[in-house]
């Protein structure tokens, strides 16, 4: 019997490198985990592992390389039980010490199993994978493109846009940084709706170094805004 998906799936991708997409994905997952079972999933092939981003790299639990044999009819509950926790949020991370890729079919089987088990999945998408058409955009209920208010981010968003539009997935920009282009300029230039425009959270890096991303700063409030914008239970 085919299992029915229960999760709301939100993808997060950076318009360019270094704009804070992984941190935003983590904060969004942390926000959602207050009200529903949530898994934060690392799909960024070029990252050092989301477990490092959220400060659970030393916590025991399965990472993607440990799931190489998990294709086929895998049970989502079994996968969730194996994962390390960041507070209430389970984290399926890459492993900085084992960089060999996991088969795409296995990734899709695991994602489907998780989506049938939990209330929310937040996917930290690989930007190159989105551009190349390898990212699971069609599985997402919404995609957040994280950007800065500058022309570099506009150019990066334009490179992503054909795949986003082809997937037919609801998508929008979350923009944080020093004042540059306004919301109307960004929307017109990128072709995407701006869901949030605000200044960068200057204290985030120091906070994340100590305890992982979180707290009550601007970045956390941005995640709150996106949850409300998407109409997700908060």
Overview of this protein structure:
The protein is of the alpha/beta class and 234 residues long. Helix content is 37%, strand content 18%. The chain has an eight-stranded mixed sheet with strand order 3-4-2-5-1-6-7-8, with helices on both faces. Mean pLDDT is 87; it is low at 205-211.
Features of this protein?
single chain, 234 residues, alpha/beta, 8 strands, 37% helix, globular
Question: What is the element layout, followed by pairings?
Answer:
Blueprint: E1 8-14, H1 21-32, E2 38-42, H2 50-53, H3 76-82, E3 85-86, E4 89-92, H4 104-115, E5 120-124, H5 127-132, E6 142-147, H6 151-167, E7 170-176, H7 183-190, E8 193-198, H8 204-211, H9 218-229
Parallel strand pairs: 1-5, 1-6, 2-4, 2-5, 6-7, 7-8
Antiparallel strand pairs: 3-4
Helix pairs in contact: 1-9, 3-4
Task: Determine the fraction of residues in helical runs and give it as a percent range.
Answer: 25-40%
Tally of DSSP helical segments: 9
Number of strands: 8
Reported for the largest beta sheet, the result is: 8 strands, mixed
Uncertain runs are 205-211
Structural class: alpha/beta
Strand order of the largest sheet: 3-4-2-5-1-6-7-8
Element string (H = helix, E = strand): EHEHHEEHEHEHEHEHH
**End-to-end gap:** 32 Å
Report the average pLDDT across residues: 87
Summarize the structure.
This protein is α/β, with parallel strands linked by helices. It has helices at residues 21-32, 50-53, 76-82, 104-115, 127-132, 151-167, 183-190, 204-211, 218-229, and strands spanning 8-14, 38-42, 85-86, 89-92, 120-124, 142-147, 170-176, 193-198.
